[in-house]
Specification:
- With about 325 residues, this protein is mainly α.
- Helices cover about 65% and strands about 0% of the residues.
- It is built from 10 helices and no strands.
């Protein structure tokens, strides 16, 4: 599939934003959410900024962005519509919590209820995003459990990294073990991605040129020529190809920059407190860059079954 920049930004940004909101919900339930104004404003600006910016960018790859509102009416059958509905509904408890925390100075009582609900709804919203891709049987690389697990784990992981950065910068160390949780999530994220990559390469082919054309009974099918004399939408969007050697290099880059080095930086911030600020900022930047590369690969390596009619042997 052709990796649209707007979709890459959308899935990466909203995942991190919703992940941060989920962590704030966890802190509130534990009674450890800081009442520091700097921490509060920074958390809300970054969280809402990532979510709103990501959602707005998701309309940029549409042919008619002005018609995006119509998607909300198909929630009974469309995961895309369910995502839109959940995104709007999630703003309600998150906004109520923000009002209590930022303007009333309250993060307990009813405010805890708001952020706890908002945090869980944030995860549900990310799940609906994952299901947009996981529900597509025509793209086997997405139609598996690792797609859903990947979106959820990377959401909580990236949100945890942001929270740890904010906690370090503002000095609000209300959850001392957060660094170890973040490292654990980075390891979990790496584990899920490796299993995902293993699955898409070792899973048996869902369809072949023989099964797609119905000519398998006569032997192996080969194509004498392309169905079209020039590139078209299907070839550009559904038939995007990346060389395996390039994909392998990008995976190594993702593993190192997106997971391994951020985990090392987080541990260094704990061991050498003098360099904690520099270490956590580097961890955040590397993790963000690694997630962008990971998401680009997620789209670039996916093959649509329609490519079987354009010379692909199996999908």
């Amino acid at each position: 599939m052709h990796p649209a920049k707007s979709v890459i930004f959308f899935t990466t940004a909203t995942g991190a934003g919703y992940g941060l909101m989920f962590w704030l919900g966890v802190l509130a339930l534990l009674g450890k959410i800081p009442n520091n104004p700097v921490f509060a404003w920074a958390s809300m600006i970054i969280g809402f900024g990532l979510i709103v910016g990501g959602l707005l960018s998701s309309t940029l790859h549409l042919g008619h962005p002005e018609r995006a509102w119509r998607a909300f009416s198909q929630w009974r059958s469309s995961w895309l519509s369910r995502e839109g509905v959940m995104a709007i509904l999630t703003f309600i408890p998150l906004s109520l919590f923000a009002i209590n925390w930022l303007f009333l100075g309250r993060s307990d009582g009813i405010a805890t209820v708001f952020i706890a609900i908002g945090g869980m709804m944030s995860l549900i919203t990310v799940f609906t995003t994952a299901m947009i891709y996981a529900s597509l049987k025509t793209i086997p690389a997405w139609h598996n459990i690792w797609t859903k697990l990947g979106y959820l784990v990377l959401c909580v992981m990236s949100g945890g990294v942001i929270l740890y950065i904010l906690q370090t910068i503002t000095g609000q160390n209300t959850l001392p073990d957060l660094a170890y949780y973040v490292v654990g999530l980075l390891i979990a994220g790496l584990f899920v991605k490796v299993l995902y990559w293993t699955h898409i390469h070792k899973a048996p082919a869902v369809s072949t040129a023989e099964s797609a054309t119905g000519l398998g009974q006569f032997g192996k099918v080969s194509f004498a020529g392309s169905p079209h004399s020039a590139d078209n939408y299907l070839l550009k969007e559904m038939g995007y190809q990346i060389a395996r050697k390039h994909a392998a290099k990008l995976r190594v880059l993702t593993i190192l920059i997106g997971f391994v080095l951020p985990a090392v930086m987080v541990m260094l911030s704990v061991t050498f407190s003098k360099f904690a600020l520099v270490a956590v900022i580097l961890a955040g930047l590397m993790s963000l860059f690694g997630l962008v590369v990971e998401r680009w690969l997620f789209f670039a390596e996916a093959k649509h079954v329609v490519t079987l009619y354009y010379g692909e042997n199996k999908v």
